[in-house]
Amino acid sequence: MDSFNLRTKVITEINLVPSDKLEELYNFIHYFRLGIEVSQPSLKKNMQFAGCWNDMTDEVFANFNEEMITRRQQAFLGRRSDEASLD
After folding, report:
1. In Å, what is the CA distance from 78 to each residue of 4, 64, 69, 75?
2. Cα separations (Å) of 86 from 72, 73, 74, 76?
3. Among 7, 44, 62, 64, which is least packed, fewest CB within 10 Å?
4. Owning domain of residue 24
């Protein structure tokens, strides 16, 4: 179904909603739309980090990478042992 037909159907349904329920419907639609806007990734926000590791030497990047791997392993190791103790 194309966007125009779907929009027309939505508007038709909205017109059938009783007047005393319009505020609830408006709030639902409004917050639904805001949620969509917030959940869409912001290219500008993400791009501010583009190339931030370009200035690192290979040695510094290798050390950073090893540290990240170690920290992730430690974090997940603790989580796995917590989850296992619940069984």
Report:
1. 52, 21, 14, 5
2. 22, 20, 19, 16
3. 44
4. 3-39
pLDDT confidence of 77, banded at 50, 70, 90? confident
Query: Are 34 and 56 in the same domain?
Result: no
Residue 21 belongs to some domain of the structure: yes
**Alpha helix ranges (H) inside 1-87:** 3-15, 22-39, 43-47, 58-84
pLDDT at 41 over 60: yes
Q: Considering the domain boundaries, does residue 14 fall inside one?
A: yes
Q: For the chain, first and last CA: distance in Å? A: 48
What pLDDT is recorded for position 81? Answer: 56
Residues in CB range of 9: below 8 A, 6 or more apart: 1
Predicted TM-score (pTM) of this structure: 0.43
- Do 8 and 29 belong to one domain? yes
